[in-house]
Design a protein that fits this description.
Blueprint (H helix, E strand, L loop, with lengths): L6 H17 L8 H13 L18 H14 L3 H21 L2 H13 L4 E4 L15 E5 L2 E12 L6 E7 L9 E7 L5 E3 L13 E12 L3 E2 L5 H16 L1 H20 L1 E2 L2 E2 L4 H29 L6 H25 L9 H8 L9 H11 L12
Parallel strand pairs: 1-4
Antiparallel strand pairs: 2-3, 3-7, 4-5, 5-8, 6-7, 9-10
Helix pairs in contact: 1-3, 3-6, 3-7, 4-5, 4-6, 6-8, 6-9, 7-8, 7-9, 8-9, 9-10, 9-11
The protein binds flavin-adenine dinucleotide.
The site of flavin-adenine dinucleotide has 22 residues, from strand 1, strand 3 and helix 11.
InterPro entries: Acyl-CoA_DH_CS, Acyl-CoA_Oxase/DH_mid-dom, Acyl-CoA_Oxase/DH_mid-dom_sf, AcylCo_DH-like_C, AcylCo_DH/oxidase_C, AcylCoA_DH/ox_N, AcylCoA_DH/ox_N_sf, AcylCoA_DH/oxidase_NM_dom_sf
Pfam families: Acyl-CoA_dh_1, Acyl-CoA_dh_M, Acyl-CoA_dh_N
Cofactor: FAD
Length: about 375
Amino acid sequence: MDFAFDAQTHEMCETIKDFARDRLVGPDAFDPDDFRRRWRLAGEQGALGTVVPGAYGGLGQGAVTAAAVMEALGYGCTDTGFVFSLGAHLFACLTPIVDFGTEEQKRQWLPPLCSGERIAAHGITEPEAGSDTLGMRTRAERHNDVYVLNGSKSFTTNAPVADVFVVQAVTRPGGGCFGLTSFIVEADTPGLTVGRCYEKTGLRGSPMADVHFDDCVVPAHRMLGPEGGGFGVFTTSMAWERTCLFALYLGTMRRTLEASIAHANERRQFGTAIGGFQAVSHRIVDMTLRLESARLVLYRAAWGLDRGSTDEVAPALAKLAVSEAAVQVGLDAVRIQGGLGVLHGQSETALRDALPARIFSGTNEIQKNNIARAMGLRGKPARRRK
Ligand SMILES: Cc1cc2nc3c(=O)[nH]c(=O)nc-3n(C[C@H](O)[C@H](O)[C@H](O)COP(=O)(O)OP(=O)(O)OC[C@H]3O[C@@H](n4cnc5c(N)ncnc54)[C@H](O)[C@@H]3O)c2cc1C
């Protein structure tokens, strides 16, 4: 076991951390023009294509390095929503194109998606099918050399600014895992419309909306992977997302922890720094323990991905460990700051940004169901869920 990054990864992360702190900070409210400006900067820096091979405009790095870069972005950039958008683009949209795309699809889509010229969004969740992925209703019906898509996706990150969507649709109703197919759909395709930008509690810098398909005609060559192979595309991209995207929260937790230590050393009550009270110092030790434990679980999962592991348990454990730690670290930070902690822009931000992490990429309850099933805990035959 080697717990240190190699010199190149270390140096890359230091550069990314400074870049994220100095160049990626955005306005308080979501602004599409500023979002795109920063997106291009992130592309120029290589952050949008860490795991994409160099031949297609990426950095050609593995999962451990990609996670380290996300951790550096999460630490450096206080707009966690922006970093989340970047991670959703890279791990839910670009990795499936790398893993399942044809040579033509890779050459067409990956370079502009890595450079920051274009933005991608991933649509699987639907109003009636959240955790129950296989209950989705969006249909893709084949007519000669085109598919016609009808249905709606909800909670689609990046939808309001996306140029291209990776979408899952049903090609064989009742076909279960083999009934889904993935498509690459350009945002300006007739029949595709994007709803209003959601207002969210956390990750406010990440735009999100519903996407509707109304007789949306997609050429068959835009199919990603084989017909009926959508579930495989989805599970592969989720393994990347549950591992590498969640690394951003390691960065946010570290930033929050450092701020909590500074506050505990500066704030004086009863004639002494509050960090001298065991109730406060032990809380900070617990925050450290949560962060470091989650960090080990996540990098262990990334290490597995780099070795071609198809184990679904390690990414699910990483998602669980990091998201639960991030929420608890946020709560602890608010308590350590006292009244200050609930003021806008203080520790409450870390807590608000952490809350959605329990939900996206499949809720934590669903992760536990999947892990339990993999451990042989089976009540009754169940359909596989997100
Ligand atoms: C910030 C954010 C970004 C997102 N981005 C995207 C995106 O880019 N693309 C996309 O497609 N989706 C996205 N989503 C949607 C996300 O994947 C879903 O919200 C999530 O899968 C849960 O679905 P749901 O909201 O319909 O909740 P439901 O499925 O309705 O679940 C509600 C509650 O019931 C519980 N539950 C449901 N079924 C079970 C069960 N079998 N056992 C135990 N508990 C269960 C859940 O754990 C949860 O607590 C995003 C969500 C958020 C919050």
